[in-house]
Amino acid sequence: GREISAGGGDESGGRMGFHLLLPLRWSRLSMSTWASGKMLGVPTVPLANGLEIPVLGLGTSHYGGYSHDAVVYAIQQCGIRHIDTAKRYGCESLLQKAIKDSGVKREDLWITTKLWLSDYGYENAKRACVESCQRLGVEYLDLYLVHWPDAHIPGKSSRDVRAETWQAMEELYDKGLCRSIGVSNFLIDHLEQLKEDCRITPHVNQVEYHPFQRPQELVDYCRSKDIVFEGYCPLAKGEALSHPNVVHLAKKYGRTPAQICIRWSIQNGVVTIPKSTKPERIKENCQVFDFRLEKEDMECLDSMNINRKVIHLTHPLWKG
After folding, report:
1. Which among 4, 88, 89, 183 has most CB atoms closer than 10 A?
2. What are the tens digits of pLDDT across the range 236-253?
3. What is the homologous superfamily of the domain 15-302 according to CATH?
4. Catalytic residue among 89, 144, 173, 209
């Protein structure tokens, strides 16, 4: 795909006019859907192995975070091709039907799922991947993530378990069952250890990312290692939507607060996966590629960072 501006047509800030530079491309699929006028085109970001991941996806979760109709709507009407799920969410089997009902070819979708703690270890991880594929009704995954850095296996250090698990991920990648492999919620220490212990650098690190939680040191580290940074909870579970800075910018640009937050995340070069079960919200979340936040407004949103997470972890990110 060819490189383009991520919105607004202003490339004065460098390639793509991004606040943080990131090579962003329109995939062939996205260009055709954009031209049709029926669906939005979603640009893609290149991974270290040359694959292109859509910069915007649809997140799913447990606790009521799944809707069959919403997933089908996102794919059919909004041009979404990137679906993010996890074994832990319990909706992989439900997604199989939504993917089938969408009518979109498997090769035109980007499907991410995650390995849960109970499946860590070499043999367990390989088996869990096959089982996730079976539940999803697919022959391969586009991206498979290790969900948490900590294993909590008695008698074994988390580092040893991570290394053993990652060796299984590497084998799954080598065999083509996973087109790319990555991690989630990993800190710099975890990534450094993985680099020492294993062969393949993760293609992606998926971490909580929103105006209240902008771990720039981790973002910079990932970029320096050619690891694509992916952000979940871009709206801070809705808490960012009422912040005066966000409300002010929504009025300034004639957009919704959610669109301001998602645009900020994408314009910071972060692959972004908002969650919603409401079609009107999904449509709104996708309409973020036809405008661009000015430099001072990006800085205004950047300044909201107070290192506050909205995901209260059952499994804390220890550094063991």
Report:
1. 183
2. 989 999 999 999 999 999
3. NADP-dependent oxidoreductase domain (3.20.20.100)
4. 89
